[in-house]
Amino acid sequence: EWKEKYDTVDNVEEDTLTFTLRNTWIFRPDLSALTGEEIVTVPHPLIMGVLLTVQRDREAMMPLVKKGINILFHPLESAFLKVRIMDLLFDGIYIDCSSQDFSAKALCSGMDSEGAVSPYNETHYKFSFFGMRNHTEAGRWVVYRGVKNLRDLGRVVSYNDETEMDIWDGDECNQYIGTDSTIFPPFLTQLDRLWAWSPEICRSLGAHYVHKSKYAGLPMSYFELDFGDLKNEPHNHCFCRDPPDDCPPKGTMDLSPCLGGPIIGSKPHFYDADPKLLEAVDGLEPNKEAHDVYIHFELFTGSPVSAAKRLQFSMELGPINDHEVFGQLPQVILPMFWAEEGASLNKTWTNQLKYQLFLGLKFNATVKWLTIIIGTAGAIGSAYMHFRKEGKRTDVAPIDVSTPDTNTPSGKEGIVNVSLGKNLPPVIDGLDKPPKMLASELRPERY
């Protein structure tokens, strides 16, 4: 699969980016386990979809629809179709609409207007699951650039000039929440969900944080997607036909309002879904590693480094009232196929994260702690030197001069009277006069 964004327009004032998305699927026989020529047996997706939809929503038109189906698909002998798998998925199944009968022409016109088939020539149409969408425009998107508010990076503003959907029975369910799944804002936390809106299923889904993980030796956060249990989630009842009684089983989504047919979405092999779904179908082996939806995510940069988006498409079968062929079908959700989109970054990209982000963060952390340690050691050393210097000072007791000591020798002996400044020795009393010494004061030394 190749996704291309083109015809981009920057709007600096509104901080938005407008682009057109194109999806292209390319068959790679060298990477495929099968050839595409295999024959499979499935419930007829087109007939089953038309009959169930009309019986559920427009029962009064059932006689006209039955007549048109008998003309277009004559002879109709079975509810199941044997078909080449590549025709079912991409190349298409031919439908002859050359009949001039009103019921047949009305049925062909209705299928064309609903987008269930694509014109092949003036009298024939083709039906396939992905062929009509291959290498075609997947809508005109407007998303935030995140220059003014980084938290808005990639968030969907509008799709095909509509700021909300008109699919579900509730404003909350019709909102565009999250990005287009190709980019996410940085600086997220473990409390944030990774929201993305998908036009293929006409709704937003949010992956939640599970635990810390490792990818290519780098620390990551592991997120998983849970389809939940709509019956027990009142805020999601707008995704139900008639809540709370008529909601899809746990772990599934009713995609009929979006796709126009009785299609149920879930994880492959009904992984993490209601166990009753497994009991009704043989051959399913749900496995977390092979069937879960996950993302190894780097929160700081907003980078998904490894992810797998997996979705199983199942058909909701049921008996068609008063129909000789489809009247005996059981009430069951039957898996048709599942698709997977995944990507994992190689060493070229993970090394950029390693050397430009993680080593930079480690260097900054090292510098920070070294600064703290050196600063703390310097403060302790300065305090020690200060108190050590204070401890070496000699305290001098003041002299009380109000009552002079009578026993003190006279000033002639060189004792200082502090208060009066008298009796200073001559060397201090007169600094400009050298001291004089009388001969009588000299004492001879004996040897």
Low-confidence stretches: 408-422
Helix content: 10-25%
Radius of gyration: 43 Å
The biggest beta sheet reads: 8 strands, antiparallel
Q: Based on Cα principal axes, name the global outline.
A: elongated
Q: What is the string of SSEs from the N terminus onward?
A: EEEHHEHEHEEEEEEEEHEHHEEEHH
Binned strand content: 25-35%
Helix tally equals 9
End-to-end C-alpha gap: 120 Å
Structural class: alpha+beta
Look at the structure and give the mean pLDDT. 86
The tally of beta strands, per DSSP, is 17
Function: Plays an olfactory role that is not restricted to pheromone sensitivity.
Subcellular location: Cell membrane
Membrane topology: Multi-pass membrane protein
Keywords: Cell membrane, Disulfide bond, Glycoprotein, Membrane, Olfaction, Receptor, Sensory transduction, Transmembrane, Transmembrane helix
What does this structure look like?
The protein has 447 residues and is an alpha+beta fold. The chain has a domain at 194-367. Helices cover 23% and strands 26% of the residues. The chain has 9 helices and 17 strands. The protein has helices at 45-57, 62-72, 85-91, 102-113, 256-259, 275-279, 288-291, 347-391, 426-429; strands at 2-11, 16-24, 39-43, 80-84, 93-96, 118-119, 124-127, 136-144, 156-159, 194-198, 203-215, 218-224, 252-254, 263-266, 294-298, 303-317, 332-344. Strands 10, 11, 12, 13, 14, 15, 16 and 17 form an 8-stranded antiparallel β-sheet that branches. A 4-stranded antiparallel β-sheet has the order 1-2-8-9, with no helix packed on it. Strands 5-7-6 form a 3-stranded antiparallel β-sheet. Helix 1 packs antiparallel against helix 2. It starts with a strand and ends in an 18-residue tail after the last helix. Mean pLDDT is 86; it is low at 408-422. GO terms for molecular function: scavenger receptor activity. Plays an olfactory role that is not restricted to pheromone sensitivity. This is Sensory neuron membrane protein 1. Belongs to the CD36 family. It is found in: Cell membrane.
